[in-house]
Amino acid sequence: MEDLTQLRAELDDIDSRLLDLFGRRMDCAERVAEYKRAEGLPVLDRARERAKLNAIYGAAPDELKDYSTLLFSTLLELSRARQYSLLGSTDDTLERIQTAVDTTDQLFPRSASVACQGVEGAYSQMAADKLFKRPSIEYHRTFEGVFRAVDEGRVRYGVLPVENSTAGTVGAVYDLMMRHDFHIVRTCRVKVDHVLLGNHGATLEKVHEVYSHSQAIRQCSEFLDSRHDINVHVVENTALAAQMVAKSGRTDVAALSSRSCADLYGLDVIDKDIQNKQSNVTRFACISKNLEIYPGADRTSLMMVTSNDPGSLYKVLARFYALDINLVKLQSRPIPDRDFEFMFYFDVQSPVVAPEFQTLMSSLGDVCEEYRYLGSYSEAL
User: Fold this and answer.
1) For 204-256, what is the HEC assignment?
2) What is the DSSP letter of 16?
3) Closest to 361 in 3D by CA, of 101, 14, 88, 131
């Protein structure tokens, strides 16, 4: 049996030579970039890359064909990323980002006109109060109404829930993102504490009808499943559910809502601690029509459509990996009227002024069919 120390020494020697060859290859890629700049050629040459990978696959030993293809695919990704960093972006996204960084105020607004879904007491209102010291809130029945209010300029900002630590993504909001032009300027997290609210005289034994938002119902599914005599009804908002119960005057109906709605609508807390998990947090996004990037922005949201080919998503992920950019969220949603095609939503973590972020934004176009930059922001604590 060979000595492990000697084997590791041999590996170190091979790695040293590989590193030298990698440096030579990247230097050659830079010279290729200069040639392409001079001749007005695009960085990506799909036919050339396809032929290259086919040749690698054909030349590699049978047991190493897949490994060899993966290795050289990564090398080609790194080569293109380096060329893009030298040649710059093929669209105006990076320029728009830099303009927003230069022109956005240094401080996030303390007061502003804000659109929220629901009524007074909704968790969206709590998020707005967390984001702004003095928000002027305009309420809408639907998430669509919030997007429209921002898009039409009736308010400066909209506040929308995007994901919950228990129930997951708010799919309706993500679907609306495909249809509206907007930018995310900040996010925040709100601790969710659902209670069962009823009119004076209501008890758990008397209640047979419960109203709430679909997300709250999922977050309290274990409690509701244990009550076989309760019928559950979905409404647009947890605060609206409390308002409806209060207006009914009945003692056999209740709402899954926030504790603050008890005082707001004159209701009693029938039961508490009814959510599946006590660590229940909803993340909200503050959106605007105009691109605003405030100091400290270290998170970016993107929407992307990849080709319906094997490895297309891998190429996107490889780009993040090659640039050492942390991917903190990946969500897919079906594209309406396009069978078996999906829009991918990415949240990446990187300071907007970091060189690797600049490289990423100048090179995304070659790893997807289309992409949309949603904004760079920080999260309010």
Assistant:
1) CCCCCEEEECHHHHHHCHHHHHCCCCCEEEECCCHHHHHHHHHHHCCCCEEEE
2) H
3) 88
Whole-number Cα distances in Å, 272 to 151, 208, 221, 258, 371: 39, 17, 14, 10, 44
Structure tokens at 262: 């008890």
Q: Rounded to whole angstroms, how far apart are CA atoms 1 and 119? A: 75
Residue type, 108: F
Spatial separation of the C-alpha atoms in residues 37 and 333, rounded to whole Å: 37
Which among 257, 256, 249, 200 has a CA at the least distance from the CA of 230? 256
| Exposure string over 35-73, b if 16+ CB within 10 A, otherwise e | ebeeeeeebbeeeebeeebeebeeebeeeeeeebbeebb
- Tokens 């392409």 -> residue: 36
Q: How far apart are CA 170 and CA 178, in angstroms?
A: 14
DSSP 158-186: EEEEEEETTTEE-HHHHHHHTTS--EEEE
pTM: 0.83
pLDDT tens sequence for the chain (381 residues)? 788 999 999 999 999 999 999 999 999 999 998 998 888 888 878 889 899 999 999 999 999 999 999 899 888 888 887 887 777 656 688 889 999 999 999 999 999 999 999 999 999 999 999 999 999 999 999 999 999 999 999 999 999 999 998 888 888 999 899 899 999 999 999 999 999 999 999 999 999 999 999 999 999 999 999 988 899 999 999 999 999 999 999 999 999 999 999 999 999 999 998 999 888 899 999 999 999 999 999 999 999 988 777 778 888 888 888 788 999 999 988 887 776 678 899 999 999 999 889 888 887 877 788 899 999 999 987
Give the position of tokens 């320029």: 95
Residue type, 6: Q
Rounded CA separation 9/5 (Å): 6
Strands (E), the chain: 111-117, 134-140, 157-164, 168-169, 183-191, 194-198, 209-212, 231-234, 253-258, 268-271, 281-288, 299-305, 326-334, 342-349, 370-380
